[in-house]
Amino acid sequence: MSLWIPYFLVMLIIVVLSLGIPDIEWYEQSGMRVRDWKSYKETFLMITLILMVFCAFRSIQANSIDEYAYRNRFFIFQNYDFATALDKADGEYINSILTWIISKTFHTSQGVFIVFGSLTVLFYMLALKRYSGSFPFAVALLMSMGIINTSFNITQQSLGCAIFVFFCDSIYERKFLKYILVVLCCIYIHNSAIMLLPLYLCGNHKEKDAKIKPYILLGSFVIFYVYSNLSVLAPRLPMLGQYVERAESLSGISTNWITILVNCVPAIIALVTRNRIDSDDKISMVAGNMCLVHACIFLVAILDNYIARLALYTAPFCVIFLSRSIKMFSESSRKIFIWGAVILYSIEVYLRMQGYVYIFNFAF
User: Fold this and answer.
1) How far apart are CA 337 and CA 260, in angstroms?
2) How far is CA 244 from CA 193, 238, 247, 298, in A?
3) pTM surpassing 0.85?
């Protein structure tokens, strides 16, 4: 079946269930601790399990997507001992260790997606539970922005992204050592996570201060420079070698304008609402800065579609920021803002799915 049918059905189910979990304002008005979710843990667990099953047991057989490579790697690793698996890691040691363990534990390549998919969903959901302002809205955005949809293809990178988002407190709490350890963990899962190193600067300044903008512009230039010179840099940085062939094969294919404009919306809202962010709201400040980085990545992706993959690391922060920004709008404007955002992103991800050539199935 076409992916959009089960995708939006699951989205509808988990959003309806999540409506039973109050947002931050309810906790504040009732006098309860803001993150006291004990009364709603069953609902949260049910939502997480539904999404886990959806991600862990999907089966998309197509040579043109990364799932094919993951399944092949599983069968190759079945013949490796642990030392050989590490030797073939290409710097992605955690990914190789996980794949090796999975290849020795499961008899089917579906084990890769059961483990990677479940862990990705778990970290994403715990991050939303921890940082979002409106949990139902955040869950809707997680699906409608296509973050879960993207994890179907780039499963390995998605796990690194989910871990990074869950531990983003290291940015606004200014815990540099913890941040480096988290980023190293993500790099050992997927080499592209090296781009996360400079994002620690997103916690340096309030969004309304102009000082963060030069860093974002500089970062955009670095992304473009590195990607444009992969063939030159790859011999010096072996971790870039695997991207050279992909970059050359996709050279000149730009991201479509609808996707670019839609992904710039959170940055526009972040700029418009910058003066309304509470000085103590460090989470919104960091997430707002990440929205600006997210927009810059997509603007650079005008030159090459493959660059847009890096935006996976910033997309969850757009979810967090938008879910927290609703409190900056009047009561009458909130419903329009929420419905507008969900509909806008749902249309974009639906149009994206129409370009898929593979068939979605479940592997039960």
Assistant:
1) 20
2) 16, 11, 5, 20
3) yes
